[in-house]
Design goal:
By secondary structure, this protein is mainly beta. The chain is built from no helices and 5 strands. Helices cover 0% and strands 65% of the residues. The relative contact order is 0.37.
Length: 55
């Protein structure tokens, strides 16, 4: 897993937090159906943005 976090101060009270994560897993999901078999690699990229206030 790779993670990067940024905190940005907007003023004395407010801030923004940005978090980006990439999860590298060797997971293969198999889906079997009547028409075709499919394999899907799952490597999620996760974003989050938070706004906060210090008091």
């Amino acid at each position: 897993m790779v993670q990067t976090v940024f905190d940005l101060l907007l003023n004395e009270d407010w801030f923004v937090n940005v978090d980006v994560k990439y999860i590298d897993k060797n997971v293969i999901a198999k889906m079997e159906s009547v028409r075709a078999d499919t394999e899907v690699a799952i490597n999620p990229l996760i974003f989050s943005i938070c706004i906060g206030r210090e008091f």
